[in-house]
Amino acid sequence: MINYPGGTPYKGKETKIRKSNKTKAELSISSANRGMSFEADINASNEYYRDKGICLITKRPTPINIVKVDYSKGAMITHAYFETQSTTDYNGVYKGKYIDFEAKNTKNKTSFPLSNITKHQIEHLKLVLKHGGIAFFIIQFESLEKIYLLDASYVIEFYEHGERKSIPLDCFKNNGVEIEKAYNPRLKYIEAIEKKIFLVLTKFS
Amino acid sequence: MINYPGGTPYKGKETKIRKSNKTKAELSISSANRGMSFEADINASNEYYRDKGICLITKRPTPINIVKVDYSKGAMITHAYFETQSTTDYNGVYKGKYIDFEAKNTKNKTSFPLSNITKHQIEHLKLVLKHGGIAFFIIQFESLEKIYLLDASYVIEFYEHGERKSIPLDCFKNNGVEIEKAYNPRLKYIEAIEKKIFLVLTKFS
Fold it and tell me: Inter-chain contact A130–B53, Cβ cutoff 8 Å?
């Protein structure tokens, strides 16, 4: 396990060393855990920001398509399916402004594949920008141990007009902001917004 | 069935006339349907506002606590429970501003009982206001066939310092705005915000 200066435990390398001993199912579970840990870091950061009175960002619950509910067992759901999120995972308010973002993890070292972004999410984020909201992606490059914040406008551009269905790492380096990891908040993404997104807003508004 | 000038079908009175012929379970279902129809009107209004480029408001999915998933059946959820919503039902962006609201239906004719508002929701809305967002309630008085929009600050005040655990109808009449019903949008609540909430914002900011 690597100990970051801020103290955030990160299991990336440990998982990698063990790789050869794992079955495909086990690898899939550890990858899911990695995603869960990234999500947990964002949720913990939101909690910190809320408690410190910095902003209010909440996670949208996963949409579920409920088929059957057993009321004899205290409204127990007995048959349901996960639905595809047509919006994003997080939204909220910061300094009166509307904030909306999606967080994704990738194992890729050179680019972020757009295959797990849906057309609905792109449409949603275009509308957020149109209505004057702040929209962005937080992308974790787990192999590089780096997390970037990138304004949604770049992602929309690559999604709609890019030749490849991925965003090169260089785009994140040049146009995004690297999110600093710390003890609390674990991911300083509001600080990253202040560095970059508000500059963009000032420039164009 | 009553036909409103705007064409919105409303089953309130019909349900009432039939009351004596219904079992308790049937009544409970028709009341649930009423709630569903009110929710459907808000969702349809949000769709209209989105399509017309007026604002982007989305409904938060109902939070579900998943106990068991059967992966042999394509990730079918076989055991889960409804969780209490700790935030509100709707949020989004209008003119760059963060919007957050809760919609409730009441059969009461003289006041809105606060019993179905949770402490978590009140805390959430206090934070929305603190961070400069626009927070309000849309309350349907189904027996009166009237729908009001009321700034969350009044609801918070009554919840925390009110002598009775309800908000008198007069408070809605004096401090809220009656939401006009129409064909499209079915509930003109953005127009109601413009009438009242933005005036309040201008006054205090």
Answer: yes
Average pLDDT of the segment spanning B170-180: 95
State how far the Cα of B163 lies from the Cα of B140, in Å rounded to an integer: 23
| Contacts with A49 from chain B: Cβ below 8 Å | none
Residue B54's closest chain A neighbor by CA? A131
Burial group, residue B88, by CB count within 10 angstroms (0-12, 13-18, 19+): buried
Q: Inspect the interface and report whether the beta carbons of B82 and A75 lie closer than 8 Å.
A: yes
CB contact under 8 A, A61 and B58: no
pLDDT tens readout for residues B141-162: 999 999 999 999 999 999 999 8
Per DSSP, chain B holds a count of helices (H) and strands (E) of: 7, 12
pLDDT(B203) > 70: no
User: Nearest Cα to B139, choosing from B35, B17, B13, B16?
Assistant: B35
Of B104, B97, B111, B180, whose CA–CA distance to B137 is shortest?
A: B104
Inter-chain touch B93–A61, beta carbons under 8 Å: no
Q: Identify the CA nearest to B53 among candidates A19, A195, A131.
A: A131
- Is the CB of residue B32 less than 8 Å away from at least one CB of chain A? no
Whether ipTM exceeds 0.90: no
Contact A133 B56 (CB under 8 A): yes
pTM of the predicted structure, to 2 decimals: 0.79
Name the strands in the sheet holding B64-70, side by side, starting at the edge strand that comes first in the sequence.
A64-70, A76-82, B76-82, B64-70
Q: What residue type is assigned to position B128 of the chain?
A: V
Question: Is omega for the bond preceding B113 within 30 degrees of 0, making it cis?
Answer: no
pLDDT digit string (tens) for chain A, length 205 residues: 333 333 333 333 333 333 334 455 544 555 556 667 999 999 999 999 999 999 999 999 999 999 999 999 889 999 999 998 889 999 999 999 999 999 999 999 999 999 989 999 999 999 999 999 999 999 999 999 999 999 999 999 999 998 889 999 999 999 999 999 999 999 999 999 988 765 555 444 4
Q: Best of B60, B127, B131 to disrupt the A interface by mutation (most A CBs within 10 Å)?
A: B131
The one-letter amino acid at A19: K
